[in-house]
Amino acid sequence: MTTIATTYSTQELAHYLGITVKSVHIRAKREGWQALPRAGRGGGKLWVVSSMPAEIRDRLASALLRQPAAITEENTACASIGSNICAPIGTAGNGPALSDRERAIVTARLAFCRELDRIAPLVGKKAAVAHLVTSSRMGELSPVLTEQLAVAFARRRGDSLATRTLYRWYADYLAGGEAALAP
Which of 20, 59, 104, 160 is a Cys-bridge partner for 137, taking CB atoms 3.0 to 4.6 Å apart? Predict the structure, then answer.
């Protein structure tokens, strides 16, 4: 299952925001970000995302969309997004097995649902959808999502992602699991 980060280290924030480590500390102190002690070698702090101002959460969400999520065997074989639904793609539900093309479409749409789940804790669901749609239109999605975009539409021509489409895919997934994402 994809884990959703609610805290980031100083180094991670500096990398994602494109600023120095010192700038992260200065800004965190000035804006009153909450921090947890970081366990392990070197210690340090883990900054709580919910305590950051909206502008920082937006910049962090945009930076995360430009970087591919960590892809593991579990991510590619298991459809689980903030729910108890977890089944290999193409096997969930009582319907007929999916063809290779349909399975590719489901996987592509599922990638966008996972990105929505990954970004939503930072900025909220509505803003996460807006970030995905805007990044799609401006060509700023990660290479993995850019590849999946044309496949997800189940057409020969690619389109940019629309707000209504993303909401529909996400609602379908939450209502019926990964099988509901099939064309």
Answer: 160
Domain positions in the chain: 1-52, 53-181
Residue 115 exposed, middle or buried by CB count within 10 Å (0-12, 13-18, 19+): buried
Q: Does the model's pTM come out above 0.70?
A: no
pLDDT by residue for the chain (183 residues), tens only, comes to 344 578 888 888 898 888 898 999 999 999 999 988 888 777 788 888 888 898 888 888 888 877 765 443 334 334 333 433 444 444 444 456 778 888 888 888 998 898 888 888 888 889 889 988 998 888 888 888 888 888 888 766 667 788 998 999 999 988 888 888 888
